[in-house]
Amino acid sequence: xxxxxxxxxxxxxxxxxxxxxxxxxxxxxxxxxxxxxxxxxxxxxxxxxxxxxxxxxxxxxxxxxxxxxxxxxxxxxxxxxxxxxxxxxxxxxxxxxxxxxxxxxxxxxxxxxxxxxxxxxxxxxxxxxxxxxxxxxxxxxxxxxxxxxxxxxxxxxxxxxxxxxxxxxxxxxxxxxxxxxxxxxxxxxxxxxxxxxxxxxxxxxxxxxxxxxxxxxxxxxxxxxxxxxxxxxxxxxxxxxxxxxx
Length: 246
Hints:
By secondary structure, the protein is mostly helical. It has helices spanning 2-11, 18-31, 34-46, 53-65, 69-81, 88-99, 104-116, 123-135, 144-157, 164-176, 180-192, 199-205, 212-224; strands spanning 237-238, 243-244.
């Protein structure tokens, strides 16, 4: 494993470089090993090696995978004190740690800090914000759909163009909360912005009778582009007797 090679290097008296630590941090991030990533970060700081955006992002990604928002937020503040250049990826990774737990308050704190730091959010930022609303408790007193709309509108107002993945996520949130009217609005907004729906858009809409007209128009567009075939949207057959699954 990467960790065993890393330990052998140190036992041989070879000092790890920033590149070595970067590779290790990436491995820890993929595994969600926050303690391993923190150990690398502490060693780098002690050796006075440069803390790059990639290395800091890897630590925050490890926190996100472990759903550890508290650690991610603490490290974010330490990185700022260390003079690390903050960008949208750093803030988004820290937000993701709270979003994975559905903790809206923590996510919002980092989003406000991002804005106060004059860092412009991107499409991934809004994806994370919407994901946090999707993972929050449905019985929450907060109107999660309105919350996500607020984020999305603010980012659009800052000249950030959402992509199909962002709008699919927003429409799917509406589906979860049975807010069909709001879903229609964003579906039409998608088409107005010239954003092409994809197969996942159709999957979200399957079974929504109220959306039959919109769904038919989108299916026609996708078929003309050759992205879906007619049988992709038919009901599944079960039992080998031609009966539709109910």
